[in-house]
Design goal:
The chain is of the alpha/beta class. It folds into 4 domains: 46 residues, no CATH class; 161 residues, Substrate Binding Domain Of Dnak, Chain:A, Domain 2 (Up-down Bundle); 145 residues, 3-Layer(aba) Sandwich (Rossmann fold), CATH 3.40.50; 228 residues, Rossmann fold, CATH 3.40.50. Helices cover 46% and strands 10% of the residues. The chain has a 6-stranded parallel β-sheet with strand order 6-5-4-7-8-9, with helices on both faces. A 6-stranded parallel β-sheet has the order 13-12-11-14-15-16, with helices on both faces. Strands 1-2 form a two-stranded antiparallel sheet. The longest helix is centred in the N-terminal third of the chain and has 35 residues.
Length: 657
């Protein structure tokens, strides 16, 4: 029986459309390009040119004598270093943008959240006083940038972790010094002839991962909030139906929000709108894809067209004038897809080019001019359409749950607190919490693990937070709306109605997993649920992971004390010793563990068992759904106001779920 490709009917429809246009998609390529089973399980070493060495059959060591345990540990450590480099370089770029804004060198950009600026200044030890926001921002940017090149000491933000967690890092010697310092050391250790003890390698992998979660990603999230605004609940729409047949359609894809923010401003410029009308379009429609899309979604309500595996399929609609990409998760195949239609692929990062695409590198000093140039190119392309097919699917959603807003809605401006949430967990109304994050992978059914896990977890009174492409999956399937309360268990439903939250909270892009670290820290330090993140009845899950960045996120969650479960398959399956160390070994040292489990049903079982075990260890009330009466039928108006949902702008189509 052929594996089902997706649970999203709109994606099924567009796969047929792409096939008609002879547009290759990752779903097709996954059928003909089978992964190497040796490399997939971590049994291949290509760190020097004596090999590559494949440890299969009678081959038990590489040419240099490296064992399977050493090789799999090296491969995983190097992957974690790659993910940390990607996320942290993002954070560096945002810090450099803040510095340019502070110095008046970034026209069109400004500091939008001065309160967050002052809060972050406190974290970083920057004096506030009566100084101007520009002076404070300059120092915040410089302190942030110093964390990248720091050679001694510790990352500044480590002190934001629970005190007990900080003690564990220092005792084990895994507290990172500088971001670049630890990534470089990971690359050195995994070079041929260097670190050859798998446990020693994997402990440095944790150090390297922490440079992302408590370093580059946390800095990137904080500074993005300072520059572009801290997210708060906002309504929008998702899936292919957000593409408009009679407007210039621009998709923003990638991970870096700076240029995207300027494009949002440009598309509402009357001059640009007049220019679009002169080409026969009724207006200009900007949409998101992947994490650049999530950044715009949470701050502006910009609709999101899809997640990772849908990028070629949006082009196949024939209605996309420009796909503007920066870096990370951008498939090279989008250019080949664009050549089958009229779409223009525009690469904008100085770090990234795609052969055949238009390259317009972004720089802050001329940012607004570059944004206008890109929008004009899209408008000029509108008359070149060759035929349009847009699936009739669109879903509403409510997003924008930053950790600041979660604290605010539990106590208002003057009594912000995680006390109500902790009390609900202690009482058993909320069984526990799950962070479901990560990518899509054509090696498994698209969106299936995400959707099924969320429905089952909230039915079992587990509060879910999400980021990245996982959150987009929930958006497309109607799971980020008030109506999703029908799936929630009685205790969770009662708490969500009382506090004013849905049971699935979209917290941002994949770099915003640092927000989840902050929520866990606040729960741990609030009292009643232990003293550390490792005490909490909580799990982290990446059901459809594919990226090195996902491994890095998983590792820093483990280093912070979390139980983390990955779906799809294991990149260290070839080594029983490494597999055991990631679970039992890491748990003994840092209180968190990483396991790989392809079956989402078993992930669910393990997650609930872990949550219940943590509840028992805390000696709080056993989870018993029968203790709480079935909640009354629930109306969205009870706790979320849909007046900010512009019906004239976003029309929910007949095919919507």
């Amino acid at each position: 029986m052929e594996k089902r490709r997706t649970v999203d009917p709109s994606v099924m429809e567009m796969l047929e459309r792409a096939r008609e246009q002879q547009i290759s998609t990752p779903f097709d390529r996954a059928e003909v390009t089978k992964p190497c089973p040796i490399g997939r399980e971590g049994a291949c070493c290509k760190h020097c040119f004596m090999g590559p060495c494949r440890l299969v059959g009678k081959t038990t060591v590489g040419i240099c004598g490296a064992t399977i345990d050493t090789i799999t540990a090296r491969n995983l450590t190097r992957a974690i270093a790659g993910g940390a480099a990607a996320h942290s370089d993002h954070g560096r770029s945002i810090a450099q943008t803040l510095l340019a804004v502070a110095e008046g060198k970034a026209p069109g950009l400004e500091i939008k959240d001065e309160t967050k600026l002052r809060r972050v200044a406190g974290y970083l030890g920057v004096e506030v006083g009566e100084r101007s926001k520009e002076d404070i921002a300059r120092d915040v940017a410089n302190v942030a940038l110093s964390d990248f090149g720091r050679q001694e000491g510790e990352l500044v933000n480590l002190k934001r972790a629970p005190p007990k967690r900080q003690e564990i890092w220092r005792k084990l010697g895994i507290a990172p010094r500088g971001i670049d310092r630890e990534i470089a050391e990971a690359m050195h250790r995994t070079c041929m002839g260097c670190d050859q003890d798998y446990e020693h390698l994997l402990m440095h992998a944790l150090t390297c991962s922490l440079t992302d979660g408590w370093g580059g990603s946390m800095l990137g999230t904080d500074i993005s909030d300072i520059l572009f605004g801290t997210p708060a609940p906002i309504a929008s729409t998702s899936n292919f139906g957000v593409i408009r047949p009679d407007e210039v359609n621009i998709i923003i894809h990638g991970h870096e929000p700076t240029l995207a923010e300027l494009i949002v401003a440009v598309v509402s410029d009357p001059e640009m709108l007049d220019y679009a009308r002169s080409k026969g379009a009724k207006g200009i429609n900007i949409m998101g894809m992947c994490c650049s899309g999530n950044e715009l979604l949470l701050r502006h309500g910009v609709p999101i067209a899809g997640n990772f595996l849908q990028q070629e399929l949006t082009i196949a609609t024939g209605a996309i004038e420009a796909m503007v990409v920066d870096y990370q998760c951008v498939m090279q195949a989008i250019q080949a897809a664009a050549e089958r239609t009229h779409t223009r692929i525009i690469t904008t990062s100085p770090k990234v080019k795609i052969t055949g695409a238009t390259h317009i590198p972004f720089e802050e000093h001329h940012g607004m001019d570059i944004a206008k140039q890109i929008v004009r190119m899209a408008i000029d392309n509108y008359p070149n359409r060759k035929g349009v097919h847009i699936p009739d699917f669109m879903d509403r959603m409510v997003v924008g749950f930053s950790h600041e807003y979660i604290a605010y809605m539990q106590g208002g401006v003057y009594r912000q607190s995680f006390r109500p949430l902790n009390d609900a967990v202690i009482a058993g109304r909320i069984r526990g919490a799950a962070a479901i994050v990560g990518c899509n992978n054509p090696g498994t059914t698209h969106d299936e693990g995400h959707i099924n896990l969320v429905k089952e977890l909230i039915k079992n009174d587990v509060l879910v937070v999400s980021t990245g492409c996982a959150a987009v999956a929930y958006a497309k399937h109607g799971l980020l709306t008030p109506e999703v309360m029908e799936y929630a268990g009685p205790g969770l439903k009662e708490v969500c109605q009382a506090i004013g939250i849905p049971p699935v909270l979209h917290m941002g892009s994949c770099i915003d997993n640092s927000r989840i670290l902050t929520v866990l820290t606040q729960m741990a330090t609030e009292g009643g649920l232990g003293e550390d993140i490792s005490d909490l009845p909580a799990v982290g899950i990446a059901p459809e992971w594919m990226s090195e960045k996902a491994l890095t996120i998983g590792a820093y969650a483990v280093a912070s004390g979390c139980y983390v479960l990955f779906g799809v398959g294991s990149p260290v399956k070839a080594s029983a010793a490494v597999t055991e160390f990631l679970s039992k070994g890491w748990e003994a040292k840092v209180g968190g563990k990483l396991e790989f489990e392809p079956d989402w049903r078993k992930i669910l079982e393990k997650s609930l068992a872990h949550i219940d075990a943590k509840r028992k260890a805390l000696k709080i009330a056993d989870y018993d759904p029968a203790r709480f009466a079935k909640s009354e039928s629930y109306a969205p108006a009870d706790y979320l106001d849909y007046k900010n949902f512009d019906e004239g702008l976003y029309t929910v189509k007949a095919g919507s779920k």
